[in-house]
């Protein structure tokens, strides 16, 4: 017993040492994708189909958020950095600069649109909103009698007499989420511009305007419900007076349980978002590291699979997953520049 | 002696006693209520998980005629052939008379998009089918499966509010009446890796990933942890330095696990640049080896503390007797103390491993929270683990994933219960009382 015990101990020590050394060098033959959690459901679907129908390994897709993904992506060239990053917004100029400084040539591919929905349970509260009303209901500070004060609106009827007399209760994503960024930019900022005093502020002091327009109230009317959109859906069913903020694909998948509020008279439907009528919608992208093409096998083929009509077209499988396709002519031009790996310019 | 209860003093004493008894009873009931409410929550938790998980154990398959007579298909390319068109034609034949692009698309959607992959593996296993026509059972789509399991909710609602339209219901009922639909044990769930289609998603990739990761954790944390414990208990001088080390080991046991993830990211993935060379770094992202090392660092304090407690509980008389008859310190430790401390060490190790098995936070930062389809074949290949798989399935919008999530939770619970049961068994079997 004792001798074998010592032997086992020695053996495991040796094994541990061997493990540590054996990983020092390794080549990668599998595409690595990071980035936005909004693009994640689409990117994974393409990755899976790509793995099934090509001789290449299935790419590994991580959901790190748009900002986190771009940070990893732009950190350098080499097999220990990702090959592709997904983003639910366009790359920022600062990010692009740091990318180029690190010797990276990003290729931009716009893949489609995503609508951000204010939804409630079927049979629950019914809202027909305008961006201005969304801002007045959810901003931290709003102008009252020419002065910025803490948001006094307690019910939707306080915001506008046409809305139901129900307490404002909104479940939405936390500040770390790209959905929150886009919501602040498209809905809140869009609404703030419609408020006279803030429109004037925007002209005189753009920074101060941005601060006011992007601040979400913290007095309990807006509840940060975490990144998990399924959780928001469940909470909405339990509380018919609550409104949730989430991506269109969740409304699409739960169309039997949820209803989307109209914004500026437009229902959040596939057609309205694709046509650009629904105002709270954004473009989705992915960025390819040109330096890794031909180093990591399959990148070109992956881009080809993503930009195939059967994938991202009107009848493609990504549309079934809730992606709103680009217009046909734009698809054509994006596919062409993507497949020829044309470097992007800001 | 006179009866005290009649005096005013006696009455007061009686009252005090009654009060003390009442307090005792009250406390007993509060304790009982606490235990009962804990048990109730546990029952509710298990009830909902098991209730949600059971439908995931079976899956509905549809028998469709498969025409494998095409010349393009040979024994050589059977493993890489694109079977999508064959499956498509099969379902057209099974439900004849469907015209129009939209209806045909819906009909195609009745069969899982993974059916072609399933067919590919079946044909590769049965090459004698090539050139013939076969009736083969292929998985239905997740919505059709949910409908057959009555999990679609109220199907009398208006069509627009459902995920499953009237015509799809008609086709499914028709196939069911013809006896072409069969509910089978869901072997896909236990043999496949992750997938974006609920019907094609399996837990096997995560089970293998968890196994590889825990193997690395075990191999690293046990020898180092037990070695540290032996040194500190048996050999180390008691001075300020060892006291400082002891305090820090106890502190490390209480450090939130995400911090170990940050360490993994900073040291093992990126490396620390020290001016003239980089220390660490170069470990593969999303791989079992990196995850295992991070989890090993996380479990080390637990293993050390448990091992020290086990070694300490071996009576000094054993050591003294060994030393007394001429054994060296090493011999006394390894021949006598360690074997007697082994049950305690093993229990501590297993509990530590069970903790590592349920961990996600540190893995988030080293890229193991990722969508990985291929089953990992080695320590350096991308892998994910069970709790991460649960976390990701819970986040997918498709309704079919809700059952998968519950089933995966059940499997993780089974592993944890098994590990804890082994720990209890080992303790009972080998424990010695002095």
Describe it:
The complex is a heterodimer of chains A (346) and B (434). With 346 residues, chain A is an alpha/beta fold. Chain A contains 16 helices and 13 strands. In chain A, strands 1, 2, 3, 4, 8, 9, 10, 11 and 13 form a nine-stranded mixed sheet that branches. A two-stranded parallel sheet of chain A has the order 5-12. Mean pLDDT of chain A is 85; it is low at 19-25. Chain B has 16 helices and six strands. Chain B is mostly helical. Chain B has two domains: 60-184, no CATH class; 204-430, MetI-like (MetI-like fold, Orthogonal Bundle). Helices cover 62% and strands 6% of the residues of chain B. The two termini of chain B are 50 Å apart. Chain B has helices at residues 8-53, 84-94, 101-108, 115-125, 142-148, 166-177, 187-191, 204-235, 240-253, 257-270, 288-312, 316-324, 329-357, 361-365, 386-395, 400-430, and strands at 58-67, 133-139, 181-185, 272-273, 278-279, 370-371. Chain B has a three-stranded antiparallel sheet with strand order 2-1-3. A two-stranded antiparallel ribbon of chain B has the order 4-5. Chains A and B meet through α1, α2, β2 and α11 of A and α8, α11, α13 and β6 of B.
């Amino acid at each position: 017993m004792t001798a074998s015990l010592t032997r086992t101990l020695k053996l495991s020590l040796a094994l541990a040492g061997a493990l540590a050394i054996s990983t020092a060098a390794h080549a990668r033959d599998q595409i690595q994708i990071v980035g936005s959690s909004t693009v994640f459901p689409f990117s994974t679907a393409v990755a899976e189909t790509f793995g099934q129908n090509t001789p290449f390994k299935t790419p590994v897709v991580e959901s790190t958020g748009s900002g986190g993904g771009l940070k990893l992506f732009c950190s350098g060239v080499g097999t220990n950095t990702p090959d592709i990053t997904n983003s639910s917004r366009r790359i920022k100029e600062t990010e692009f600069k740091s990318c180029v400084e690190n010797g990276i040539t990003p290729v931009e591919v716009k893949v489609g649109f995503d609508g951000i929905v204010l939804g409630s349970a079927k049979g629950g509260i019914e809202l027909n909103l305008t961006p201005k009303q969304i801002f007045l209901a959810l901003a931290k500070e709003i102008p009252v009698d020419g002065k910025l004060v803490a948001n006094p609106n307690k019910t939707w009827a306080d915001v506008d007499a046409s809305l139901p007399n129900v307490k404002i209760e909104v479940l939405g994503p936390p500040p770390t989420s790209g959905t929150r960024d886009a919501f602040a930019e498209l809905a809140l900022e869009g609404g703030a511009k419609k408020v006279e005093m803030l429109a004037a502020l925007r002209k005189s002091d753009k920074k101060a305007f941005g601060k006011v327009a992007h601040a979400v109230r913290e007095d309990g009317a807006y509840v940060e419900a975490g990144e998990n959109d399924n959780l928001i859906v469940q909470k909405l069913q339990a509380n018919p007076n609550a409104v949730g903020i989430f991506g269109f694909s969740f409304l699409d998948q739960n169309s039997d349980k949820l209803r989307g509020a109209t914004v500026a008279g437009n229902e959040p439907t596939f057609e309205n978002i694709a046509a650009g009528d629904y105002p709270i919608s954004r473009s989705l992208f992915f960025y390819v590291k040109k330096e890794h093409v031909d180093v990591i096998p399959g990148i070109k083929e992956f881009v080809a699979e993503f930009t195939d009509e059967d994938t991202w077209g009107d009848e493609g499988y990504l549309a079934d997953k809730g992606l709103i396709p680009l217009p046909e002519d734009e698809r054509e031009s994006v596919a062409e520049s993507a497949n020829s790996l044309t470097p992007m310019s800001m | 002696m006179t009866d005290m209860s009649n005096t005013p003093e006696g009455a007061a004493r009686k009252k005090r006693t009654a009060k003390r008894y009442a307090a005792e009873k009250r406390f007993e009931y509060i304790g009982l209520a606490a235990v009962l409410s804990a048990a109730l929550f546990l029952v509710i938790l298990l009830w909902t998980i098991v209730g949600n998980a059971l439908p995931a154990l079976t899956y509905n398959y549809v028998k469709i005629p498969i025409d494998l007579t095409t010349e393009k298909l040979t024994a050589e390319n059977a493993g890489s052939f694109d079977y999508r068109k064959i499956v498509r034609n099969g379902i057209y034949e099974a439900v004849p008379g469907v015209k129009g692009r939209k209806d045909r698309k819906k009909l195609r959607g009745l069969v899982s998009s993974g059916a072609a992959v399933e067919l590919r593996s079946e044909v590769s296993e049965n090459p004698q089918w090539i050139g013939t026509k076969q009736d083969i059972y292929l998985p239905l789509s997740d919505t059709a499966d949910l409908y057959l399991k009555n999990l679609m909710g109220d199907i009398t609602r208006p069509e627009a509010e459902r995920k499953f339209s009237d015509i799809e219901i008609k086709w499914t009922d028709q196939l069911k009446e013809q006896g072409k639909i069969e509910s089978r044990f869901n072997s896909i769930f236990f043999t496949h890796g992750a997938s974006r289609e609920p019907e094609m998603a399996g837990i096997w990739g995560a089970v293998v990933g968890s196994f590889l990761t825990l193997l690395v954790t075990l191999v690293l944390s046990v020898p180092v942890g037990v070695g540290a414990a032996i040194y500190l208990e048996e050999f180390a001088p008691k001075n300020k330095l060892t006291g400082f080390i002891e305090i820090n080991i106890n502190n490390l046991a209480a450090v939130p696990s995400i911090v170990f993830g940050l360490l993994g990211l900073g040291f093992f993935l990126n490396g620390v640049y020290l001016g003239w060379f980089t220390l660490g770094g170069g470990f593969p992202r999303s791989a079992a080896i990196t995850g295992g090392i991070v989890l090993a660092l996380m479990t080390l304090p637990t293993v050390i503390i448990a091992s020290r407690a086990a070694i300490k509980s071996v009576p000094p008389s054993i050591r003294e007797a060994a030393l007394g008859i001429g054994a060296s310190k090493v011999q006394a430790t390894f021949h006598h103390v360690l074997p007697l401390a082994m049950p305690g060490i093993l229990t501590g190790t297993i509990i530590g491993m069970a903790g590592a098995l349920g961990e996600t936070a540190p893995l988030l930062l080293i890229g193991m929270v990722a969508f990985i389809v291929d089953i990992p074949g080695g320590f350096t290949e991308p892998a994910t683990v069970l709790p991460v798989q649960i976390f990701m399935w819970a986040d997918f919008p498709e309704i079919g994933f809700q059952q998968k999530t519950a089933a995966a939770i059940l499997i993780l619970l089974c592993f944890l219960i098994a590990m804890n049961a082994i720990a209890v068994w080992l303790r009972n079997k080998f424990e010695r009382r002095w």
